[in-house]
Structures are given as C-alpha cells and as structure tokens.
User: Fold Methyltransferase family protein from Haloactinopolyspora alba.
Amino acid sequence: MPQNLPTALDSLRASLLDADRLVRAVASGRRRSATPRFRRTELRWVDLRAGRRLQVVTYDEQQSFTRNVAADEAGAAVDEVLAEPYGNWHIDTTDEEIQLRVTKKGDAQVHRAGRTGGVDRSHDRRKARMLEPDDPFLAEVGISGPDGRVKPSRSAKYRQVDEFLRAFAPVLDRAHEEAGSAPLRVTDLGCGNAYLTFGAHAWLDRQPDLKINVTGVDVKEQSRTRNEELAERLGWSSTMAFVREPIASVELDQRPHVVFALHACDTATDDALARAVRWDAPVILAAPCCHHDLQRRIGRATSWPQPYGLLARHGILRERFADVLTDAFRATVLRILGYRVEVIEFVDSAHTPRNTLLRAVRTGGAPDPATIAEYRRMTDEWNVEPALVPRLRQELDTRMK
Ligand SMILES: C[S@@+](CC[C@H](N)C(=O)[O-])C[C@H]1O[C@@H](n2cnc3c(N)ncnc32)[C@H](O)[C@@H]1O
Assistant:
C-alpha cells in the first residue's frame, strides 16, 4: 500500500541511527523527477580507535568517498542522505530487512520483513577496516585502482597490511606513552616496496594528537629511490624517510619506539629482532618469513632427541617443525630479555602461510628462571643455537647468569 514519502523516509531514520541494530543501509537509483548527487550511498556503523562512527560511503561513476561521522553529527548526516532523491532504500538491521521504493507517482512502497536468528553485528563492526580501499596512498602504491577499489591481484597484500595494522592497534598506546609529546618514531626493517610502511603512516596520521616519523630500511637502493619518490608524491616527505642499509648495522639518528619487520627473509628477521632489542624498542612486531637456518641445522644432525626424531625424519614435517621451533625460540629469547610476547595469527592462513606475528612489548621485567631452564633444555636436546642468540649474546649472557 503506497505511503506518503516524507513520512516513510522519516520512519527509516531511527533504524539508520541505531548503532546497535543497523548492519548496512544502501540508497540507490533515482526518482522520476530528480537525480541524486551520488549514484549510491552506503551507511553503517564502525568502531574505530577514536570511537564509534557512522561510516558514509558515497559512489560516483569513478570512485567511492568515505567519511566517518561522529555520533553527535550522525543525525545531520543521515538527514542529508534521506533528502537525496534516491529511488530505493535497502536497510538490513539485526532483526529486520526494510525496503523502500519510490513509485512513479512519488509515493513510497515499504516492505518490512523480520529476520529469524538475527545477524551478528559485533562481527561486522570488528571487521571495520584500518585502511579504506579508497585511501589515496593505496592508489599511489598500486594496490587500489583509480575507482578506489582494491585490485583483485593485490587483495592479499591489502589484507596483509590491514591485518598487520589491526594487530598493531592494541599496542599503539604503549608506544605513544613512551614517545610522550615527541613524534612517535616507527621503523620498518626490510621494508621492500614499503606497503606496510606507507600503510602505517596513513593510519597513524589519522590518529588524534599523534605526531609521527616513519622510516623504512632496506638493502636495495631501488627500494629507497622508489619509496622516496612515492613519499614525495603523497606529500609525506617531511614525516617519512627511507634508508639503504643492511638491517644488522643500520644506525638511526634517534632510536625508534616501534619496530616492524614483515617477512624479512630467513635470518633477516633475527637481525631485525636483535636490532630492535639493541635500540631498546618499546614495541616490536615481527612477522617472520621463510626459516632455513634451523631446518639446515636439524637436517644435518646425526641424531635427534628421542622420541621427537619423528618430527624431523620427513623433509616436509622437518620444515614445518623448524618454523615452529624457530619462532618459539625467538619468542623465548625476547621474554628472557624483558619483553612480554604474544604469538598470534595476524591474517587468515588462506591468504598466506606466513601469518605468524610476534608482538612484543618491553616491560623490562626480570626473566623467569623456569623460562630460562626450559629454553636451555630445548636448545641442549636439539643441539642447536637459534640464529638470534649470537646476535644478542652479550645481552643474553647478562640476563641468564
Ligand atoms: C619479502 S620482502 C618483504 C618486504 C616488505 N616488508 C613486505 O612485507 O611487503 C623482504 C625485503 O627485505 C629486504 N631484506 C632482506 N634482508 C635484508 C637485510 N639483511 N637488510 C636489509 N633489508 C633486507 C629485501 O631486500 C626485501 O626487500
């Protein structure tokens, strides 16, 4: 039954402003007499670090524009979209699906259907992105196209950077605390094409009351020149720098508060962890890459501790076991050196098998004797010295006395 259009639109307002119930609303199409400014508008609520926001995404023919509106301004933003001459509204809430269609006569046809089982809104919010696909830097680094959408061929990289930043978010306050009113210094070791370095800059730059300074380090000169040019194009040259140096010996003017290492090959991750510890970095996030060092050592051994030889007998199992053992040693060494360490999966294994992340926060606490004993027994039984150990021998000797 047709309804008066202004009244029907007004009845949508409460659902759109209900942050606990709204899943997503889409306004699209045009009315007979008028064309909206945007081809389509989507609304949903997201939880950002700065708090809950109404996300308004508008699409023209080429690209999308995203703005996140604070709760006290959401009413005005919703009224603005309701005032556009859209021909259709589709609203999903946790318990209802609402469709509104504007008829040729300019009335509203409204259909409401209850949902059985409901929709888990919390999941939808938890998955709010750290970097919107239309973020200008993503287009500049070639992850998104000019239409503001992630290119299918780059979606794994986009997800990896987004999820890495999601894992960084919970420890940002700790690093910020350490930086105080000075710029937060972030260093990405083995930055390569610097997707993460630029992504971190883009995300941190949006955090309230935070000044930043981001440095990427890589041995390749080509990475340095390419990344510097990119920083220049993005207008970030004053807050970003790129250095061509090996991780093990790089020196920076001031020690960083946060050290990243994303997929630095083989023992370059150990170089990065050792470098970060020597800088006394309050926060370290390292997602290791391939692990060949322990694999080789275990493979060369003439005997293995029994009955655990079963883990090392077959090449493929030995490879996986060496990966686990390497990261377990890295986490333990950091614990002994006064870090609280979590080992987490930062991106779904469907996207990359290299999805383990060591997230370490310096506490400076004394090592637990039980951890030292466990570590000694493990290295003795396997008769291996993890690659991180010679790099931090002095520090470990002091802490393990
Ligand atoms: C697999 S890429 C990862 C790049 C980037 N972190 C990412 O995840 O997109 C590894 C990068 O680490 C750099 N790298 C490897 N060993 C290094 C070392 N010892 N010192 C500096 N850079 C190193 C390589 O040049 C390469 O660019």
